[in-house]
Design brief:
Layout (H helix, E strand, L loop, with lengths): L3 E2 L15 E2 L12 E6 L14 E2 L5 E5 L15 E5 L6 E5 L7 E2 L6 E2 L5 E5 L1 E2 L6 E5 L5 E6 L13 E2 L5 E5 L9 E5 L5 E6 L14 E2 L5 E5 L9 E5 L5 E6 L14 E2 L5 E5 L9 E5 L5 E6 L7 E2 L6 E2 L5 E5 L1 E2 L6 E5 L5 E6 L14 E2 L5 E5 L14 E5 L2
Parallel strand pairs: 1-2
Antiparallel strand pairs: 3-34, 4-5, 5-6, 6-7, 8-11, 9-10, 10-12, 12-13, 14-15, 15-16, 16-17, 18-19, 19-20, 20-21, 22-23, 23-24, 24-25, 26-29, 27-28, 28-30, 30-31, 32-33, 33-34
Length: 400
Amino acid sequence: MLQIHAGSGKCIFGCGLALALILLLPPGSAQAQGETVLYSFQGGNDGAYPYAGLLMDKSGNLYGSTYWGGGSGCDDKLGCGTIFELPAGGSETVIHPFAGRPKDGAWPAAAVIADKAGNLYGTTYEGGHDNTGTVFEISSGGTESLLYPFTGSSGGYPVAPLIADAKGNLYGTTSAGGADNAGTVFAIAAGGTETVLYSFGSGTDGAEPLGGLLADKAGNLYGTTFAGGTRNAGTIFEIAPGGTETVLYSFTGKADGGYPTAGLIADKSGNLYGTTESGGEGRVGTIFEYAAGGAESVLHAFSEKEGDGEYPWASLVMDKAGNLYGTTAGGGKYNAGAVFEVSPQGAETLVYSFAGGSDGADPVAPLIMDKAGNLYGTTQMGGTGTACENGCGTIFEIAK
């Protein structure tokens, strides 16, 4: 289960992994040109700690989740988390505050997706009858329903976003549960029936998938596991439509990177791109390419040198020119995280360094890009909210 620590030492996600990321937030509220805070969470009914990325509709409205907040419940004064909307040029509105077990989900850690009718779909880390997480739907009118509560044997504790096929079937991963409690890849039919496509557990096949899935036209699914593989430093895997799993690459945790927490993206040639939370020459994470022919290469290794990012937890987004954009949870000029660009040749540029104050801090979510090339994302901390130590998080835009 994924674990992130704030400067206070508070465990934000579940505490099942031996490897933790500890980030110390410096004071400061500087805001560089190009970054705009669209919303600062206050830690009350509006939500707190957005760990997930955003969804943008055709009108420019943004949708997302906060891990905490939304009111009372879940044995925490901050609540069980929310699904929110931020209209273009408008105010933030909570679409659904989660209530927790047994009838509702709790603590959503992943972005939502939408169908053509405007219904939203996502996962919660806990909640449901067995308190091992849920898959939910929120109708375009705002009504929430549980599509599936996990049972442990069918998977548990999902932290990754869903994907959908043309028939409306949903696919995702759970970080735990399954036959050997090492995580699963699952499908949920349009009617709500869940099928475990693959249970991790042999060790070398991977364990603890934290990222979402990528599907090709043939229906093959691709993803990463945080642990497992030949060196127990994570894997890149493929699952065929019949459920057969193939490990495409096992990370060593050294120069090639290790412990990927995010899903993959692909270019038109079928090459895969992703991040590792640690490893690389600088030991603080990498951007990697897995070529269609089967070779893994590091495009950029982050370092602890001043001005570079550290610990990329999130997946990437690619522009038309093949440049990759993402976030690091640490590093940057102020050691409060950064937004970076990596060219197809591997040259890295820090687009923005968070100062850890009102501009936000410690982004662990992926970015999205609009047609004009503007970037949107969340920071898990920082902002102007005073109900949370070091701020309750932000939604930001970085203009092209």
